[in-house]
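Input sequence (332 aa), recorded before submission:
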Amino acid sequence: MERLAVIGAGSWGTALAVACHRAGRSVTLWGRDPARMTEVAERRENARYLPGVPLPEDILITSDSAELVRAEACLLVMPAQALRPMADSLAPVLPEDIPLVLCAKGIEQASGLLMSEVAAACLPGRPLAALSGPTFAAEVARGLPAAVTLASREAGLAEALARAIGSRAFRPYVSDDLLGAEVGGAIKNVLAIACGIVAGRRLGDNARAALITRGLAEMTRLCIALGGRAETMMGLAGLGDLTLSCTATQSRNYSLGLALGEGRSLDEALAASRGVTEGVFTARAAVAMAERAGVELPICQAVDQVVNAGADLAAAIDGLLARPLKAEGFSA
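Predicted structure, token format:
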């Protein structure tokens, strides 16, 4: 795979375009807004989403969907809730056998579907993979070391994609647990909001460590119930991404929780964010998914009540602390 297209020109899409170029590939960065893509192409910088990162001259920056036909694989990099409309619009353009790498982390709120399920419905027949793991766009774009999970049910596809996008500083580790990688990437956004709230309320490092650990148990419980593997949750797409998102203010979800914990309203916190805060959408969808699977996600449920149902924050925290003591494990 020598020719790659990155669909979606936000911060993560731009960073992945730079990473793929660094891996020696011919790269097209595609965005749907002609005026903005023209500006990015002329400035060789995505000043809105990834300022200060120069874009190599030989990355093709375009809004012309005809340019996508020549790609040998496409990375779909847009907010989770935008995947369906984007996929529908591109279905007539993308070749029927082109591999697609899903880089959004979330659950579609309206349908309760994971990103691979949305893509399979909108772009049937295309081989699918998911890219997940602990990555901040600015660090990847600058060439700082990072490792990710690249998961596909087709082992050969994951290995080929890893060779295509991997480099000394950007290290993909392959997996055949597509579902597990997607669950980890989605649920960690919700748990990052919870950890931000803990920091904003000054509940201490002990509380944050406990929340990360019990949050990992929730992720694992849901993953197993849906047919994924527990060991995936111990890897980059699970524990790795969870740790990063729950401990750094670069995380939009953590920052939103921090603002809520400090007493700001949800509208104020969302207005301050420069991008989409996926955890707000995923919280409601994750709780519904867990109910269908017959498992309990108390932390995710508390976050959903706060961000989607207007629940009192102090009451939600008290509710978690009042839960009965249980044996430690994924079933508790």
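Checked by second reader. The chain has 15 helices and eight strands.
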